Amino acid sequence: MYPSPGGGQRSEVSVLAAPEAFSGLPAACVALVPTVLPDGLGRHKWHDRRVLADRRGLLGLGRHEELLLLDEDGAVLETEQANVLAVFGKVVRTPPLDGRILAGTTREAVLRLAALEGFEVSEEPFVLADLVSAEEVLLVSSIRGLCSVSGLRKDRSFGAGPVGAQLAKALWALWKRVVRPDCGLVPEDSQP
């Protein structure tokens, strides 16, 4: 934001798309840094996210690190920018929509795609120790699509895996089939 000649304020918004999110490949890996945020962020998006920015600063997070929000009971909730999925064999697990996390639209799409791809989908609470034992940890958001988690700071390394690649490809196929010209969904084959 900056002052305008008329005495008001002007702002500029700069958006940088993550091109890998729109290519059918998982977006760049991020590392997660656990932090406790009692009751999580809740079911609504926040305009004022200073609590997260302050926490990032206190923990010294880098560009490729993201806060992993845990409740006081140790439950994994979400990250500061995405929903969390954990892969255990043929089971894709995610925290439930119990009022502590945002019900992301991409989360819903990926869970449906996971079921269509032959995975069992489980929406149930889990703790950090469960996440550490997962084969893959994935983040999903409408901005990045699907990305793999490279690790948990000081606890465990993960990296990109086959389930993330499979679900990213399925998500890309879904996104290619629909467009939103006037906020309506239109099948790709009906476009001029």
Please name the defining characteristics of this protein.
9-stranded mixed β-sheet, two-stranded antiparallel ribbon
How does this structure look, described?
The chain has helices at residues 50-59, 105-116, 128-132, 162-177, and strands spanning 2-3, 9-10, 27-36, 65-70, 76-79, 83-88, 91-94, 120-123, 136-141, 145-152, 156-157, 178-179, 186-187. The termini are far apart. Strands 3, 4, 5, 6, 7, 8, 9, 10 and 11 form a nine-stranded mixed beta sheet that branches. Strands 1-2 form a two-stranded antiparallel sheet. Strands 12-13 form a two-stranded antiparallel ribbon. It has 192 residues and is an alpha+beta fold. The longest helix has 16 residues, at 162-177. The chain has one domain (27-179): D-amino Acid Aminotransferase, Chain A, domain 2. Helix 2 (105-116) crosses helix 4. Residues 13-21 and 182-188 have low confidence and may be disordered. It is built from four helices and 13 strands.
